């Protein structure tokens, strides 16, 4: 969806053929005008959105479009263990302990998501 910058509700619905979907599902979803998109030099695409809740906090989410569905039978559990190795056991993450930062990660069938929630100013 980042390439087209347009999301159609029918694309994520029970109607694989959008022509058969009800008209409401064919409408383009409006995009928040304060949304900022970009691409880093290494090709990583990002989306920034300012929000006021929770107040005085920063949130970061990294959503990798790879999960357990991408594993072969002999690799079951590998996506989840890599999540732990890459994030939960990271020395940089442990340096944040005691600063008010909350972080976690998850792996599902199609995604591996890392997220952190931090105070704008340290407590």
Descriptive labels:
single chain; alpha+beta; two-stranded antiparallel sheet; 123 residues; 5 strands; disordered N terminus; three-stranded antiparallel sheet
Explain this structure to me?
There is one protein chain. The protein is α+β, with helices and mostly antiparallel strands and 123 residues long. The protein has helices spanning 78-88, 91-94, and strands spanning 36-39, 45-48, 57-64, 102-107, 112-119. Strands 3-5-4 form a three-stranded antiparallel beta sheet, with helices on one face. Strands 1-2 form a two-stranded antiparallel ribbon. A hairpin with a 5-residue loop joins strand 1 and strand 2 (45-48). The longest helix is centred in the C-terminal third of the chain and has 11 residues, at 78-88. The protein is flat. 4% of the residues are buried.
């Amino acid at each position: 969806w980042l390439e087209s910058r347009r999301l159609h509700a029918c694309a994520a619905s029970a109607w694989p053929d959008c022509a058969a979907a009800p008209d409401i599902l064919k409408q383009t979803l409006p995009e928040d005008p304060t949304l900022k998109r970009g691409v880093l030099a290494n090709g990583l695409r990002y989306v920034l959105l300012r929000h006021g809740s929770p107040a005085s906090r920063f949130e970061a989410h990294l959503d990798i479009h790879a999960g357990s569905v991408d594993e072969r039978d002999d690799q079951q559990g590998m996506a989840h263990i890599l999540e732990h190795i890459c994030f939960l056991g990271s020395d940089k993450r442990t340096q944040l302990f005691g600063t008010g930062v909350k972080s976690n990660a998850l792996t599902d069938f199609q995604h591996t998501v890392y997220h952190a929630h931090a105070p704008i100013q340290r407590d």
